[in-house]
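Please produce the structure of this protein holding 1-O-alpha-D-glucopyranosyl-D-fructose.
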Amino acid sequence: KPDPDWWRGAVIYQIYPRSYQDSNGDGIGDLSGIIHRLSHIASLGVDAVWISPFFTSPMLDFGYDVSNYRDVDPMFGTLGDFDALVARAHELGLRVMIDLVLSHTSSEHAWFKESRSSRDNPRANWYVWADPRPDGTPPNNWLSVFGGSAWQWDGERRQYYLHNFLSKQPDLNFHEPAVQDALLDVARFWLERGVDGFRLDTINFYVHDRQLRDNPALEESRRNASIAPDVNPYNFQEHLYDKNQPENLVFLERFRALMNEYPDIACVGEVGDAQIGLKIVSDYTRGDNRVHMCYAFDFLGPERMSGTRSAQVLKDFEEMAPDGWACYALSNHDVVRHASRWNLDEAGQRLYATLLMCLRGSVCIYQGEELGLTEAYVPFEELQDPYGKEFWPKFKGRDGCRTPIPWSADGPHGGFSDQKPWLPMAMEHLSLAVAEQDRRPGSMLNFYRDLVAFRRMRPVLAKGTMEVVEASEDLLVFIRRADGRAPMLCAFNMGRAARQFRLPEGAWAWIEGLGYMPKVDNETVTLPGWHAYLAEG
Ligand code: TEU
Ligand code: CA
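Below is the modeled complex.
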């Protein structure tokens, strides 16, 4: 059914293809494996899938280093498999969003090979090349997210090139119109193949400062308490010139115009800039001519979200981008799984999942979160993530959230593969396998199914306004309203101890079905630790 607004409030399931399901016994997940498991995803009742990159790649950053945007890596299958995946997903009512990594390519990409070959070839300006400073050092002080200088010396062309991530992920030069055109053609290629939208990787990194000015050092007070606060020097710079340039928005406007040529297309842009704040995020999504949604990092941080901080984030977003749209997530393939990151027991996981499903905005569920998976421990000898290898042991990298999905407790390698998987199957995940939880009423998996259904039946949750009634460290109470719909009262106890709150004015009726029936006495609700109260008015 045509529905240009399907993405507003949608629930999107993120698939990390290497770890979903292996179909040919090489220990690596693939597109045929995903097709086989689409029924599991459909059973969750989600609207769409976002598939992390499956394009041709030397896999140094596991697909986020693309060497051919227009083909499937043989490891994952063929274009025919992809077409079959889209067809099957559509039959099941699932939309397909693919992950376009446009800011950089792999150094194996034909464009880069040509660009590095001389200073005057047709693609000489397709990447960011610069001469050394007089003493031979890199052109400026920009740093790579993955460690060290953002500049790599190239012996062939005898110049430095810019890379915001791995040195084998050279940054494309978005100041070159032909680069923008080529990338738009890539998007068109996939739109013609029938995709429903995109997750756009690192949209904040597209354009760099033309003059290559040095970044200032960050003041102590504003240092980013991110994944590796005391480890990665990247977090001690203010990234004034290497990203978030205003020209990013100009490219995104071109990208949006292209999407608008096709029906029902949506994209979510990734902007990981906690330290720069919501102002920038709102620029990317405000109005209807850039990205539809901004992927929000607020619920992905190392510190457990309190009532006060949640309220602040939601309020800020509404004030700064009243006509913008956020897409929230608790976990993804880059961060420690939230069950472990926030040290949540099962009740805590259920509480935050309920909160997620009550937020205004769209939401992502990361594969395995619906099973309550914890972060797996991957020893150094088995580590694959280059980011983890660089900063080990202070930062253990991203492999712990990328281990294979357990499908059955008794199959070989949890039913993921007949062969030794590329990352070990976490033994403690086996009892949480899909087949185990599927048949257990009240399991985390069945709870997620109920939650998604609950949200889908009540559009006021996805799209209504939000008014915070009470917020403290442990308590968050808000009311969601939309014209012509019953208002909803949503209360969350984000702590261990019982908490009380006074019902706001109105006749609130507890909604049966989701968990615990709270004690209401004299307009005062008592919520046990880690419990939510949802009522309709
Ligand atoms: O991540 C971009 C991003 O925000 C990273 O800087 C993130 O902070 C880092 O991975 C630590 O968690 C995207 C992809 O999600 C990531 O997997 C890729 O490695 C990266 O881009 C480069 O393409
Ligand atoms: Ca495989």
